[in-house]
Write a structure and sequence with these properties.
It contains 2 helices and 10 strands. The protein is elongated. With 137 residues, the protein is α+β, with helices and mostly antiparallel strands. The two termini are 25 Å apart. 28% of the residues are buried. Helix 1 packs antiparallel against helix 2 (113-136). A hairpin with a 2-residue loop joins strand 8 and strand 9. The chain has helices at 90-105, 113-136, and strands at 4-9, 14-20, 22-27, 30-34, 41-45, 48-54, 57-63, 66-71, 74-78, 82-84. The chain has a 5-stranded mixed β-sheet with strand order 2-1-9-8-5, with no helix packed on it. The protein has 2 domains: 4-85, F0F1 ATP synthase delta/epsilon subunit, N-terminal (ATP Synthase, domain 1, Sandwich), CATH 2.60.15; 89-136, Up-down Bundle (Single alpha-helices involved in coiled-coils or other helix-helix interfaces).
């Protein structure tokens, strides 16, 4: 069975380095399923879950966005924030989502809407990752 070398790196540390038979992520143009021998590709990475499958084993990670580089035998994911999905705090993610929604709806203050929308998208992606992880267990 062919395998891919997979590296997931945040701005501060390497989160994962190992082998996989499949990698699933959301690129800037939609869902990606990457198997060994995949055509080379460089694309943006949308905030959300990244699943690394090796046979029957699967690990899920949260990436806040970034880039994914695919080579026929290697996948590299570069993200500002990357962490193992099982270490995510759902209550904290929900609180962050509510705070971002409140900022977006606050007409009184001078809100940086782009920043608030990005915070909302990241919080929603964290919650989605937690829910997918729970569903897959």
């Amino acid at each position: 069975m062919s395998v891919l070398k997979v590296n997931i790196v945040s701005s501060s540390e390497e989160i994962y380095s190992g082998e996989a038979t499949m990698v699933f992520a959301t690129g800037s143009l939609g869902e990606l399923g990457i198997a060994p021998g995949h055509t080379p590709l460089l694309t943006g990475l949308a905030p959300g879950p990244v699943r690394v499958q090796n046979g029957q084993e699967e690990e899920t990670f949260f990436c806040s966005g970034g880039f994914i580089e695919v080579q026929p035998s290697e996948v590299t994911i570069l993200s500002d924030t990357a962490e193992r999905a099982d270490s995510l705090d759902e209550a904290e993610a929900i609180k962050a989502q509510e705070a971002a929604e409140k900022l977006l709806h606050d007409k009184e203050n001078n809100v940086d809407f782009v920043k608030a929308a990005a915070q909302l998208a990241e919080a929603a992606a964290r919650i989605k990752t937690i829910q997918k992880l729970r569903k897959n267990k």
